[in-house]
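Standup notes
- HV: blocked on the assembly model, inputs below
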Amino acid sequence: MDRDKIRDLLEKVRNGSLDVSEAMQALKILPFEDLGFARTDSHRALRTGYPEVVYCMGKTIPQICAIVERLTAAHKTIIASRATEEVYAAVHTVVPGAVYNRDARLIVIGEKAEPQTDKKILVITAGTSDIPVAEEAAVTAESMGNPVDRLFDVGVAGIHRLFENASQLFSANVIVAVAGMDGALPSVIGGLVDRPVIAVPTSVGYGASFGGVAALLTMLNSCAPGVAAVNIDNGFGAGYIAALINIGAAS
Amino acid sequence: MDRDKIRDLLEKVRNGSLDVSEAMQALKILPFEDLGFARTDSHRALRTGYPEVVYCMGKTIPQICAIVERLTAAHKTIIASRATEEVYAAVHTVVPGAVYNRDARLIVIGEKAEPQTDKKILVITAGTSDIPVAEEAAVTAESMGNPVDRLFDVGVAGIHRLFENASQLFSANVIVAVAGMDGALPSVIGGLVDRPVIAVPTSVGYGASFGGVAALLTMLNSCAPGVAAVNIDNGFGAGYIAALINIGAAS
Amino acid sequence: MDRDKIRDLLEKVRNGSLDVSEAMQALKILPFEDLGFARTDSHRALRTGYPEVVYCMGKTIPQICAIVERLTAAHKTIIASRATEEVYAAVHTVVPGAVYNRDARLIVIGEKAEPQTDKKILVITAGTSDIPVAEEAAVTAESMGNPVDRLFDVGVAGIHRLFENASQLFSANVIVAVAGMDGALPSVIGGLVDRPVIAVPTSVGYGASFGGVAALLTMLNSCAPGVAAVNIDNGFGAGYIAALINIGAAS
Amino acid sequence: MDRDKIRDLLEKVRNGSLDVSEAMQALKILPFEDLGFARTDSHRALRTGYPEVVYCMGKTIPQICAIVERLTAAHKTIIASRATEEVYAAVHTVVPGAVYNRDARLIVIGEKAEPQTDKKILVITAGTSDIPVAEEAAVTAESMGNPVDRLFDVGVAGIHRLFENASQLFSANVIVAVAGMDGALPSVIGGLVDRPVIAVPTSVGYGASFGGVAALLTMLNSCAPGVAAVNIDNGFGAGYIAALINIGAAS
Amino acid sequence: MDRDKIRDLLEKVRNGSLDVSEAMQALKILPFEDLGFARTDSHRALRTGYPEVVYCMGKTIPQICAIVERLTAAHKTIIASRATEEVYAAVHTVVPGAVYNRDARLIVIGEKAEPQTDKKILVITAGTSDIPVAEEAAVTAESMGNPVDRLFDVGVAGIHRLFENASQLFSANVIVAVAGMDGALPSVIGGLVDRPVIAVPTSVGYGASFGGVAALLTMLNSCAPGVAAVNIDNGFGAGYIAALINIGAAS
Amino acid sequence: MDRDKIRDLLEKVRNGSLDVSEAMQALKILPFEDLGFARTDSHRALRTGYPEVVYCMGKTIPQICAIVERLTAAHKTIIASRATEEVYAAVHTVVPGAVYNRDARLIVIGEKAEPQTDKKILVITAGTSDIPVAEEAAVTAESMGNPVDRLFDVGVAGIHRLFENASQLFSANVIVAVAGMDGALPSVIGGLVDRPVIAVPTSVGYGASFGGVAALLTMLNSCAPGVAAVNIDNGFGAGYIAALINIGAAS
Amino acid sequence: MDRDKIRDLLEKVRNGSLDVSEAMQALKILPFEDLGFARTDSHRALRTGYPEVVYCMGKTIPQICAIVERLTAAHKTIIASRATEEVYAAVHTVVPGAVYNRDARLIVIGEKAEPQTDKKILVITAGTSDIPVAEEAAVTAESMGNPVDRLFDVGVAGIHRLFENASQLFSANVIVAVAGMDGALPSVIGGLVDRPVIAVPTSVGYGASFGGVAALLTMLNSCAPGVAAVNIDNGFGAGYIAALINIGAAS
Amino acid sequence: MDRDKIRDLLEKVRNGSLDVSEAMQALKILPFEDLGFARTDSHRALRTGYPEVVYCMGKTIPQICAIVERLTAAHKTIIASRATEEVYAAVHTVVPGAVYNRDARLIVIGEKAEPQTDKKILVITAGTSDIPVAEEAAVTAESMGNPVDRLFDVGVAGIHRLFENASQLFSANVIVAVAGMDGALPSVIGGLVDRPVIAVPTSVGYGASFGGVAALLTMLNSCAPGVAAVNIDNGFGAGYIAALINIGAAS
């Protein structure tokens, strides 16, 4: 398709319907789309069904509203992550159909995602306090068209709780394992399953947990293979890559 | 299948062909396999075609040789990672068919893995010095039956080198991006592709690279979604999870 | 005992009083208890007299109330740690008998623990500001049935204060030593006594105390043997392991 | 010139128009100006047209007002950096002509700087949240008489946005690149241009961004040469050195 | 007993069998023993049967030999920890009966310790590379008269290996859990048993394991209670406190 | 003197004027004073004229008031450090003569200290924001009877300001150098003077100043000898040791 | 020029001398050169006279030789940085005209750079041990056609040494300030001059210098403006950006 | 004295015995000596009797020899610190009278320092392994004319060893306390004495001692006042400042 655009452009130059300086301008403005190296997020979103994402932290409410408003013109689905109640109130005024998931701190705007696959992502937490981050992952993956199972509060301090839910564990295609404090859950899961585990450290804990650093290091040093980590509290990132893995390649 | 084993066991107890203490013994020795919560690595390897892995660092050469020898009895493929020349010399004596990949510091023992998929994993490095870690990833994934492409020395300091190879980038199902120093490559790739990127920081660099910590942090903070990281220099881990992602779920 | 349960189950299958699918279900639901590898916390609490613990930080008040309410049905004693005044007010509404220890930030619910031993745990602090953490340790150990002595503000800056109380020091079976800033107290105590010292760093201090890290490192590097450390400000953990040590094994 | 002052002084001593103790006093009071080793900030400001700067953080509002008031007597232009709304309100009372740049958190007092050069400084940000730091840099450089272009939200997660503005990139004499999170933007820019890049890490991010440390390390480890970094969020410092570079040496 | 000594001393002064200056001398030389605040290590060792310990790292071989030689005069058992082969060779010349435990890097000198208890300490490792640290703990505890069980290479990456040895786990009075990399083993064990767990992080690992820091942090943040940690690679310290716990108080 | 006390005690026992159990009690209650190893803070304060100090952070207002009240009975001078306005209000009610130094956050109670020496301590700051810490040092030293000079805002960014005040610098017996941000001032001073420099890092700064760690490290790495450092923002500690140095030994 | 290439290409398509698919191929292969967003390093080097750089650390000697050999075909000047004696010996065999600067650990290959400017770069060190890093900076800048002055061992511990060379300091257009330990030199220089200062921390020092981190932090926190830092020991990077600054923009 | 020099100079100009240009030259060459702000180290050494110091680490042997040779021309005493055996061998060839203190790694060249005071510095170590650092401090202070007592291996793990030597402790004018591992010794000493304590952390230890950082932090957080710290292993710096304190001001 993009290659067709370049071909068209060049054909038009050849047949004289476009002059050279106009062609140069066109190549300058849209170079990467035309050449296929890069795509505007709009194109990617339209083609893949992935939502356009607005990260709210550090942006002013007017900035967020302006961005959301502009994106709604071009996109089927928009996610606003790390959105406070205040942000939601403002966005809701601009886009009345916006839905707020309080646990996940996510605003979802637009049509419900069409199912992309019937394989399941399982989102697991070690504790109750890890649930907001887990919900951020789960809702993100759902908004990208993935079926998501949830299994919360099954940390290694009472490991039988994990084993009692073994069937969920073994039937998942991708696992997102969310844990704070010792962050030991992904290592144990990585040793049990043969599917990829996306580990999400949380800032749950105190003292030498260093705001999630202890859990992050545990996950990076997992003695079980098949585990990769995202940033502390990055539920969105975990849900996003889990969705990419779960949907699989187009070909 | 595992459930069938338990059912069989219990049926045998009921019909008297197995007495209670024998059944108890069987449950005790293989409890997790039988119940499906856990598997010995042997079972996993046989079923999935995944290789059995021996991590050599911190083990004595006699320990490594003894482990390899025992595993060869039960496994089709064995990988010994972080193997020095000395380790290889010793292993080769015990298992003459062992093959050493110097760049990857991996010994591969056993039959060539049967192809599991024709989707491709692309292993990319930012620089020349990152190649050993990249090869560890590539050979690991290949030994698990995956086609692997390599694209080396395309770091962001000369980003046109990456774009000149855009077709490789866009045709890969999973990307393993290996970089030291600023570790910026995975962020750029994550912004270009819509497939999962496994980021591998390397200890290449000096001073404030802190043995790969700078690159690791860059990758964990990737502003592009779709990126997850493994430990510094952990080519094996990256290759392993990339293989799991690429092969996909059985169902 | 647990083995007896499995034996019973199997006998019942053999004699036909339990059919195979029912037996399978039983093994699936309670596998670890039946096999003796793991116990639900409920079982452990009932058998040992140890309290069930709810860690309040990071949980919402409704979550805490719901958990406490459910646990009161099955447990003799429940501790809610890191409980604020607000949490207590809410819990008190649900369980009117709940008692709040402000210094220790602990809510204790249920019967007074029966004495498990007459050996003493001594809880020592270096300063006045360390008292809340020390009280958390002391009340935890008391709620598990241990006699606890307290000796506060005897830090090494005025070491004679410690020596003047030497008789308390030498008559304790386990010592919990709580200190912030330089964290030097456990090293000195470890050099004086021949009983185990559980060291608790606190976040008391400023600047290069790094929220308790300096004290933690001092304790981990104690040049006196017989010292082990728990997390910064983890009075609960120190009290719990001190209680386990003090009570001793059943056999 | 300064040497002339010493010569004058000594000549006056020789010819008796200045006595020895007066000469000693003069040498003591103004030694470094006279000898040329150092200059009072006043002298530097008057000669170079550079503004006098007041860093507001950590100073009380009365202190700031007193400093600003005293400086207005001697200086053409004064900048008050990291100024809150409250600070501005107070300063405005003292110096009614003071102008507040909210985004940049800068108060500029005095005449508009005369243009020092027609070469351009380009201030680029990776994201929207980096704009306050970027504005601090831009306004600082402008107040020192430099033309400044702005190019915001062109981070590497959508690298085509940077390339679409390539002409701005290649026509700048100095580039100030502002980025939080992965901080990868300066490395990419450093690989594209052949002009100096001043990299400014911001505290935008969370978790393992460690308040801007991740971005700072990325920038210090830039695999592209031609990049130097200032402190986290130090827009003022970046704008100042960019201005020095852009103006060039007097000779 | 110690109080009796003071009483004796004072009685002797009163009845004239000891004069005042002799009494003063006695009080000066042995003040803390006589008063009961402190004991020379010699006295403690003789009374408790605990060995006298020489930490070899950082001492010259002549220093070690001199210390060992002096101690052998007064002590039943001496341990020299972190002893290299060279140190052993030299010590063996001085004290021919010295026995070297290569794995544990410990030299044990003197009589075999009399059993102090029949309760068992269980020393567990996550991996093969953790064995030297584990042996240091085990031999230390044995030299203090404790029965020690060993259970090696049962890390959480293959958690069934731990469960298959559950009977050892549940019959131990104290557990020393040794792990590098993710350090997750003690958390899992702490959730299974109701006896104290002494966690020993090891420097086994690479990259973001930071020489054992990752494992240490995991252990300090254990979400299971009943766990306390010692310094990285500190097998001696773990064995020592485990022995103190296991032997129990005299009373 | 202390030895005399023991001799007296023993003589009294010998001549029967003190019985053995009374003597034992005396040795137990005041052992370290009598033996000269330790002194209660009361004794030290009375003898040396040093004030008794109450560190307020982390103590409740009732605790502070109770401590201050008790101390006023026995001490000539009391300092309460890190005292907020609220603390002062409460203390002032208990001890109406208490004087509050807002800049230094110190309450001074009791008589004005008698001059101990006419040598001067010079307290220098790099910037205006460092003044509170400097005042804490200055007032502490003054309350211990030392003449103190102040020289503020003479940091190395305008080093002529330091040199213009060289006479103050060279006439001081001890220098307390207070600096945040780059913390470079003590190195420069240490290279100029031949008297001891006590360096005090402050938490003034942002970003990579890490709350004063950058300044602390600069001071610990001073390439000029004659410099030692105290904790970040520890004006009290700096003033105290400067006073000890300045007063000199009694002999 | 590059724009001319595109224009040529399009003209050729229009006049039929190049067909559409050939034009597409050309755009794909050389997209960034043709569009001006990026240049192969070859182009940049030819146009600017900047040398092509090979960073030797982490590359094998055969790799280095192969790279150097290939580059000599296309480039006038090549620098190989961090080159050991062994590397030089091998490179010298391949390119006999290669010149080794032992202090700077740089190999320079090719013609002497033509002077680009007569403005001077001044490279200053705090100590003697910083000279290798300083030479790396100086030789890099010289190889890019810049006049370089050197001023070594003028650290702040004896600040008169700096002032005695004030004329060099004030006549430089760019200053590269190299310092380990306390890293205080650039702050002092930044306060004296009104030209940009590139600060280079070195790993000279011990203990809490943390391999140059202390010096790096000092430089990032410089209280004098006009200072930016490069990585620890990065003499090459400092020399490179100093050269870019000194040469100035083409326009 | 220095002021006299300026007065002389000016008088000579006035009476014509020195012409203006000669006077200018004199002011330029020796400006800081003449003005009294700074002194060449030579002048300071001659006047105070302090030795000139050469820090050997990071300097080549030829550099060290050249420096030592030049200094011997002008100085009575020279210390070369951190000198290896090799350095000594080379220096000894150049200056045959050089004396090597192996423990302290110091070469002392020149006349024995004249006693400056009869007050004593006490150098204390916690352990045997801390002795080299302690000797560096002791020999430095002795070479500056101070009487030094040594008290080694009296760490807090056996605190009675410290108390048995209380008379040495209480008769010292300045104490240098050297400790690795937990670094607790200076806190205990600071609580016992009323003289300044210079704390020296050593890199003795392993694991979480982080090469002396743990001990350093302990010392910076000393809960006893009167303690200031120098860099890790910086025996020279501790000895130097202790000497400055002990000698006292000239006036």
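- HV (later): unblocked. The first helix of chain H runs from residue 2 to 14. Chain H has twelve helices and nine strands.
- Next: hand off to the docking folks.
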